[in-house]
Predict the 3D structure of the following.
Amino acid sequence: MQAFVLKAYGGPELTSLGQVPVPVPNARQLLIRVRAAGLNPVDFKIRKGDLRIVQRYQLPAVLGNELAGEVVACGGQVHRFHIGDRVFARVAKERMGAFAQFAIVEEDHAAQLPASLDFAAAAAIPLAGLTALQALRDELRVEKGQCIFISGGAGGVGSFAIQIAKHLGAQVATTASPRGEALVRQLGADIVVDYTKEKPMSVLSEFDGAFDLLGGDTLEQAFAIVRPGATVVTVAGIPEPLTASKDLGRGFGLQALFWFASFLLRRHARKHGVHYRYLFMHPSGADLAELARLVDAGVIKVIVDSVYPFENIIDAMAKLESGHAKGKIVVTMPEISSTQK
Ligand SMILES: NC(=O)c1ccc[n+]([C@@H]2O[C@H](COP(=O)([O-])OP(=O)(O)OC[C@H]3O[C@@H](n4cnc5c(N)ncnc54)[C@H](OP(=O)(O)O)[C@@H]3O)[C@@H](O)[C@H]2O)c1
């Protein structure tokens, strides 16, 4: 089958389309004929080798972390899905493989496609949608009437986060450039700070929580924007000890490393009386089913920046890496004949 393969860590020239064998599912897995796959910054971070400390891949490896497609085979212990089901999923972190004509998905990581979406729109949901849901519902525990700051609202995660925070009953402030302002307002943002003109901390204060998608200076400003006792959750800052133990299930070595790496940030947060949390999202079929329900109920709109044919995935990756996508970038797979497999 055709797949987008990473040969060695580094620049885009170390990736290419090539032929690899169709993977074989184990007893608890599904084999999916991929119809569309979503792109995420984690794809180029993995390519560069930035995540080697938490996840090492045996190279060459097929890239890609989320997909939508049809079930074409089920392991013997799979009970919730059948051949022909239309599903979407964030694939297992330790395997990847979504940028291919066929991919393996754990039964527990998949959910039925939202009835109102095609494969391309559904493939845009899993990684960014789950990240936003898990950060706002499980980490920030957003409640009705709270004021929540979300940095970078116009991107893949931000476009879901604004809508989910509004659904949970919050007032939302976000940052966007003039290019993204109309979109974030359409998604429900109550306050939009133009990050090209002013610092969010100069106009926002006493927020009940913050969800940071940018790291760096914006993350540090979030500590000043929220009230003492509040939590700042980031997915783009520096991992802290709980990231290692709770999100990655790792032991003392990685916890200690993250303790040192995040020391200054945690000290900064403590000075403001704020809790600091770096979240690594986790795949979840149950959470995806919840997102599908919200999409079909009209609560969440999926924002797709652009759709590329799979053979142009290098262009799609370059667009993603430019950092200016509005919503998600997706690739769609070509039709296949049995001789191509
Ligand atoms: N830890 C985890 O589990 C996890 C999960 C998902 C994502 N992430 C991370 O979260 C980050 C965001 O991911 P994403 O998919 O949302 O990225 P993305 O879609 O590539 O974000 C692009 C958007 O960010 C906006 N942007 C860029 N600089 C900005 C700034 N200084 N202030 C406000 N907006 C800015 C851009 O708007 P303009 O073009 O208008 O500037 C663009 O719309 C990435 O670092 C990703 O790796 C982590």
Summary: The chain has two domains: 2-125+303-340, 128-278. The mean pLDDT is 97. The pocket of NAP is lined by residues 40-42, 45, 127-128, 131, 151-152, 154-158, 175-177, 179-180, 195, 213-214, 218, 235-236, 279-281, 323-326 (CB under 6 Å). The first strand starts at residue 2 and ends at 6.
